[in-house]
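Figure 6 in text form: structure in, sequence out.
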């Protein structure tokens, strides 16, 4: 009797949260799907059935093709760069350096800053101006007589997104470092000692023992960073503003919905973003749950 009472009380306590999630998350997702299948354009709602035409027009849209290409470039540079830098920082801290706590906090600090602040700072650092208006990295390269390293950064044709990804790497590599450091600290020291006794050098130890054992950490970092890169918006706006060569789906969605008042197409872009994120997150969640059950 008391057990049933506790169960009902627990359900009653969490029911407001469940109701809020159903309404404000899944309810709004359902509403967005309906809008994406309509002809709604303008301030007055128009739910006239439009089938999949909004999606078909998007896939034919040259701007959307640019958005997808830019997202792929940003994701590749950001994810790979963050994983490599984070892993190297974790390896360095794992060597038992003095002041490890200070450096760990220093590397993690950028993560506490919003993308808007990061974008404002890196916009100055990557200032492409020449002559008396030179600043940031280009000015530093000039002082160091490394003029061959000076470039146009985010205004570089085709690869401007890669320059913007550098700012994201700076912000999130500390988070990746924390993931890898936790993974390194969980590896038994006996494994390294046994490998050293067998004659393995440090490179062989990391290649054949450490890296395979860190595969779950790498997968987690890949999923987390990947889904963040698909939704990037504020960092690009803060660095470059609304520029066609640096456009991404989130910016296109904002301009289509709130500037162009084309709510049907804007909702379609939002649903495509949701699907792309779900394709990353859902398999990862299933893999995590399956691993926990097996353990």
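Output sequence:
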């Amino acid at each position: 009797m008391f057990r049933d009472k506790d169960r009902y009380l627990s359900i009653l306590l969490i029911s407001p949260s469940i109701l809020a999630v159903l309404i404000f998350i899944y309810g709004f997702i359902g509403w967005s799907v309906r809008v994406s299948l309509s002809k709604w354009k303008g301030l007055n709602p128009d739910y006239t059935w439009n089938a999949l035409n909004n999606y078909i027009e998007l896939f034919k849209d040259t701007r959307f093709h640019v958005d997808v290409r830019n997202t792929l470039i940003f994701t590749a540079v950001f994810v790979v760069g963050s994983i490599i830098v984070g892993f190297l920082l974790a390896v360095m801290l794992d060597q038992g350096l003095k002041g490890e706590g200070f450096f760990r906090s220093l590397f993690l600090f950028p993560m506490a800053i919003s993308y808007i602040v990061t974008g404002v700072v890196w916009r100055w650092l990557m200032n492409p101006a020449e002559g008396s208006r030179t600043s940031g990295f280009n000015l530093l390269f000039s002082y160091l007589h490394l003029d061959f390293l000076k470039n146009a950064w985010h205004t570089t044709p085709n690869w401007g997104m890669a320059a913007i990804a550098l700012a994201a790497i700076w912000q999130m590599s500390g988070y990746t470092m924390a993931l890898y450091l936790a993974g390194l600290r969980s590896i038994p020291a006996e494994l390294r000692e046994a490998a050293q006794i067998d004659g393995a050098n440090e490179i062989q130890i990391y290649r054949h023992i450490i890296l395979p054992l860190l595969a779950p950490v790498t997968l987690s970092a890949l999923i987390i960073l990947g889904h963040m890169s698909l939704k990037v918006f504020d960092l690009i706006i803060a660095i470059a503003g609304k520029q066609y060569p640096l456009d991404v789906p989130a910016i296109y969605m904002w301009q289509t919905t709130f500037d162009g008042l084309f709510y049907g197409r804007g909702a379609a872009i939002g649903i495509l973003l949701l699907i792309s994120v779900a394709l990353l997150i859902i398999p990862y969640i299933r893999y995590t749950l399956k691993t926990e059950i097996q353990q």
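Caption detail: The domain at 61-294 is CATH 1.10.3720.10 (MetI-like fold).
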